[in-house]
């Protein structure tokens, strides 16, 4: 039985600190002073005999006990709030929040034109903050709530991280218009050419070069950089070749004088996954955003579109 002296408003404070990751931000959202939020947390800490949150830099990170109880607390608070409305479905307009993404530049270019336009028109109360995160730092960033959602290639994670396939990306060859290889496409002409390579500090073994190795072949690189846009700008002016995910190649073709064609050898598709921490499973806004990103992926990265 719930103790009669427990103030249910304390659980609203708990949920808000959990979602905001900050006592100050929670106070602003609840229109309470920082001492008032701290006092409410203190009362709950006494009841649970647990600190509930520990400070990590500027963030308030939930303890193991807090993470254990939060799914039930979130569900209970949401259920209570639903009794105040005539509708039983989640209403995104009730939330005012910044969603924090871990996207590389290629994914920002693919997802954000459609996502940001949709949010600005239909849900301006939801804003987006995106930054690159290394794969080795991804799990910690999700656990500390520095990021809400990460999209990246399939990587090993612990059981604390949940993920789902968002798309399988194909690789294509991109080169300047009129490039000699367009009239003589072969594995031999491909490996004889100079190549540009887009790589990241924490990149795993390159899928394309692994496929080439199966043919006993390798590429020679005249340029290595970290951004596909820069590499495409270079290869549009010379005879270097660039091999890259097809969806972004098609996007760059609309902006630069380049051609996108199939590779003269088979490269396995690149599985791209969406990641979130298990503590966000019962966060309705996180769930709503994940569904929206999956829907956008179906349109911007169609599974059957390999080249244009």
UniProtKB/TrEMBL annotation:
SUPFAM superfamilies: Periplasmic binding protein-like II, Winged helix' DNA-binding domain
InterPro entries according to UniProt: LysR-type_TF (IPR050389), LysR_HTH_N (IPR000847), LysR_subst-bd (IPR005119), WH-like_DNA-bd_sf (IPR036388), WH_DNA-bd_sf (IPR036390), YidZ_PBP2 (IPR037402)
UniProt keyword annotations, A-Z: DNA-binding, Transcription, Transcription regulation
Residues making up the signal peptide according to the UniProt record: none
Organism superkingdom: Bacteria
Gene3D superfamilies in UniProt: Periplasmic binding protein-like II, Winged helix-like DNA-binding domain superfamily/Winged helix DNA-binding domain
Occurrences of domain HTH lysR-type (ranges): 6-63
Entry similarity comment: Belongs to the LysR transcriptional regulatory family.
Name used for this protein in its record: Transcriptional regulator, LysR family protein
Organism the protein comes from: Paraglaciecola agarilytica NO2
């Amino acid at each position: 039985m719930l103790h009669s002296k427990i103030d249910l408003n304390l659980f609203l404070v708990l949920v808000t600190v959990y979602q905001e990751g900050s006592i100050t931000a929670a106070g602003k959202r609840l229109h309470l002073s920082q001492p008032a939020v701290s006092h409410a947390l203190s009362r709950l800490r006494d009841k649970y005999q647990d600190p509930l949150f520990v400070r990590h830099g500027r963030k308030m990170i939930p303890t193991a006990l807090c993470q254990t109880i939060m799914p039930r607390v979130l569900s209970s608070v949401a259920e209570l709030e639903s009794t105040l409305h005539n509708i039983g479905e989640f209403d995104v307009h009730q939330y005012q929040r910044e969603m924090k993404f871990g996207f590389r530049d290629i994914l920002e270019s693919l997802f954000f034109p459609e996502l940001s336009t949709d949010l600005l028109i239909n849900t301006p109360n939801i804003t987006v903050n995106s930054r690159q995160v290394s794969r080795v730092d991804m799990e910690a960033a999700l656990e500390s709530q520095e990021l809400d959602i990460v999209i990246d290639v399939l990587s090993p994670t612990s059981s604390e991280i949940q993920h789902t396939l968002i798309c399988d990306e194909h690789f294509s060859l991109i080169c300047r218009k009129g490039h000699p290889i367009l009239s003589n496409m072969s594995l031999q002409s491909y490996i004889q050419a100079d190549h540009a390579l887009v790589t990241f500090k924490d990149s795993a073994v390159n899928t394309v070069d692994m496929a080439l190795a199966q043919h006993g072949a390798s590429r020679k690189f005249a340029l290595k950089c970290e951004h596909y846009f820069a590499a495409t700008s270079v290869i549009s002016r010379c005879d270097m070749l660039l091999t890259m995910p097809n969806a972004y190649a098609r996007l760059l073709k609309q902006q630069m004088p380049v051609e996108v064609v199939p590779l003269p050898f088979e490269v396995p598709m690149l599985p791209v996954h969406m990641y979130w921490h298990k503590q966000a499973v019962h966060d309705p806004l996180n769930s709503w955003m994940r569904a929206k990103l999956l829907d956008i992926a179906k349109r911007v990265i169609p599974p059957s579109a390999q080249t244009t």
